[in-house]
Amino acid sequence: MEQYIYYSIILFSIIVEFLYVYIIIEKAIERLTKKRKSRYEKQLIPEIDSVINELIDKSEVTNPDITQVRLKKILRSRLRRDIVEERIVYYLENFKGEFREVLIKFCEDYGIVDQEIKQLNSRNIYKIALTCKQLGEIRSKKAIPYLLEQMPSSIQDIKYNALLALAKIGEEESFIKAFTQIDGSILLSERSIIEIIDSFEGEKTKIYSKMIHAEDEFISSLFIKSAGNSLEYSLVEQIASYLGNESKERRIAAIKALGNLKDIRYLEKITNLLNDDSWEVRALAAKTLGRYGQSSVIPNLLEKLSDRQWFVRFNSAVAILKLDKELKYVDKVFEGEDKFAKDIIISAMEDLDLISKIVYEGDIGSEHENKLSKLIRDYIENGGETEND
């Protein structure tokens, strides 16, 4: 037994030593690579900038034969090719205009796009995801069919970066096709997908007008919300048509989008949704009405202070406080008998940092404000009970 323990200790020590040596070698290689890259950057970046500036100014280089030979030699090295790609991506990300197409063609002509596409055959999932990202930054339409092939992937990073790449390339039909291929199997969060849709660099109206009517209600709702984020006023009527849709997801998406667009023509329809069967819809409708700045909806919101769901009550209270700047309606709540309404108004006032201003800062001005201050103070001091109680 002792001999077994002895051999185990020796084996463990050898493994630890090997790991230690491996880490040292890896760190040394990493430092060496960084030094080489830094040296190459000093040499190559001025040269690359010179070629790019010529392309931008003239759409062609002065000595194409010499440039081609030189670039082919540079691009043989993966490290040097990475530097060239990073510099081109810098220009593509930070500058817009017709020369973008010239730079994209440059990447295609010199095999940069082809080299990246080959990397998609890797067995390393992280390398595939990074390659999808890189193809998106280059924005070559040549990569579209290969990116679409990644859509059935169950790996979230690959799916996310492939979708984001298609958004940056900005070709409408392929972007729409990507979403039809991931129907029912999408693994990404709602926020991630909306960010991807928001970042689409092509003609957004075209994809919105198609995809807000998608059969899949989840995908349809994502495009509706994104259309609201992008302030697509031309689609207001189409979006508003979903306020009465049987799908809760679509109703919620339509409310959010119209809340961003703030088209008062649909104020009444959103107000009616305060009585929706779904508490999520009621809560969002209350929150959205607070953004419109129309005090005419306050009586409807006052009724929802007694809603059976806390979020509906709270959102209604916050909306009332935002709309009722002079607090003309709040005193009516404290003169009433509804304890739910009083408690939620106080909770909302605390959240908006209004309690200290109204209740504890003494005389605050008008007779109405002083009356309200006393009503709230008395209610708080009596432990949530009114004098009538």
Give a concise summary.
The chain has helices spanning 2-58, 64-75, 78-94, 99-109, 112-118, 125-138, 144-148, 156-169, 172-181, 190-198, 204-211, 217-229, 236-240, 248-261, 267-272, 279-292, 298-303, 310-323, 330-335, 339-351, 355-359, 367-381. The protein has 389 residues and is mostly helical.
Core attributes:
0% strand; 389 residues; 22 helices; mainly alpha
- Tell me the radius of gyration: 31 Å
**Helical content band:** over 70%
Q: Which residues form runs of ≥5 with pLDDT under 50?
A: none
Number of distinct helices? 22
- Return the average pLDDT rounded to an integer: 83
Largest sheet entry: none
Strand content: under 5%
Q: Given the C-alpha coordinates, what overall shape results? A: extended
Question: Total number of β-strand segments?
Answer: 0
Structural class: mainly alpha
Measure the end-to-end span: 81 Å
Task: List SSEs in N-to-C order.
Answer: HHHHHHHHHHHHHHHHHHHHHH
GO molecular function: lyase activity; oxidoreductase activity
Organism: Clostridium manihotivorum
Keywords: Lyase, Membrane, Transmembrane, Transmembrane helix
Protein name: PBS lyase
Word description of this protein:
Keywords: Lyase, Membrane, Transmembrane, Transmembrane helix. GO terms for molecular function: lyase activity; oxidoreductase activity. It holds the Pfam family HEAT_2. This is PBS lyase. This protein is extended. The chain has a domain at 123-197. It is built from 22 helices and no strands. Helix 11 packs antiparallel against helix 12 and helix 18 (310-323) packs across helix 20 (339-351). It has 389 residues and is mainly alpha-helical. It has helices at 2-58, 64-75, 78-94, 99-109, 112-118, 125-138, 144-148, 156-169, 172-181, 190-198, 204-211, 217-229, 236-240, 248-261, 267-272, 279-292, 298-303, 310-323, 330-335, 339-351, 355-359, 367-381.
